[in-house]
Amino acid sequence: MTQQPSPRFERGTDGPKVIVVGVDGSDSSLRAAAYAAGLARRQGALLAAVYVRPVMAAGVALGAPVADATQEIAEDLAAQIRDAAERLRGLSDIRWRFHTFRGDPYNGLVKAADDLKADAVVVGASERAGHRLVGSVAIRLVKAGRWPVTVVP
């Protein structure tokens, strides 16, 4: 009988390479970003912070400057992430990138995770009461079953 070689595991080479975190400026999304940053630091993974710019057809039809507002939110979130990374400089070497996608939050995060070849997705729990009936982005991501999803309260 021939003995099968046992699988060889190397310390520090397993685990996620890209962690996607959805950010929208809410308290829960910022907690999710902090949690994901800790994961990325410990795993040596790239942290991809993703803001999904909503497409609001009704606002555009009424002449509201929706594109300007969502661009300002994206720039503000990127600045917050840069500031946090700057404060941590020297304490940790977190590799991160900020990405924006257009669309609804669920489809935007799915596209981001696919395009970035994510190994894990982290999102904040919904702060809206209506999501208990319709379903939140987090629940939809979990049900998709395509990546490990962590929902941060």
TrEMBL record:
Keywords: Coiled coil
Domain UspA intervals: 17-153
Pfam families associated with the record: Usp
Coiled coil: 67-94
Family to which this protein belongs: Belongs to the universal stress protein A family.
Name under which the protein is recorded: Nucleotide-binding universal stress UspA family protein
